[in-house]
Amino acid sequence: MNNITLHNTLPAVFAGRGDTGSEIWLRDVTFEKGKRYLISAESGTGKSSLCSYIYGYRTDYSGCFAFDGRNIKQLTVAEWCQVRTHHIAYLAQDMRLFAELTAMENIMLKNSITNYKTKQQIITMMEQLGIGEKVDSPVAKLSIGQQQRVAIVRTLCQPCDFILLDEPVSHLDDVNNSIVAQMVTKEAETLGAGIISTSVGNNVRINVDKEFKL
Questions:
Q1: Which CATH code is given to the segment(s) 3-213?
Q2: pLDDT tens per residue, range 115-132
Q3: Cα separation of 115 and 118, whole Å?
């Protein structure tokens, strides 16, 4: 996948509002593989909706989202499976971890499908993020910041063309923010992948090619 394009898109809930003042909604926008984008937004402007649309979780919008020129509403279930395992690595704002499983078990739910990272590589990433000792801890017993770091590691356990991050460092301090930025940037450079990150204030500290106001 080389590009993700948006043409005149707008969440259904915003229908009839006319020009929203957004640089994303009701515009023609292209995200290119290998480039880094920040989408700055106020709460309630649709940043999580945007990510859900790109990942195919929701379709309640007008206009068109396309992968390499193909309308994503035309994709089959099998094609969406390929997108989600090989083309787009997604970190949702709510992280979608299983509270009853351990940190490692949550990460391995993805890595067992992709076989992308070795267990030692996963442990090394967790150690870099200061949660190495939490490998066997149930997620329910972790702080929200620790859970976010687990979710970030899980997100990076797959090959992809785009890394899609919805408020990836909202619960992290400056030190861990910097570590996450380095980790995500390194992974993107290794894969030649693009990065699309949203934020309502605490931005992941990556150097971006372009910033959009949502």
A1: 3.40.50.300
A2: 999 999 999 999 999 999
A3: 7
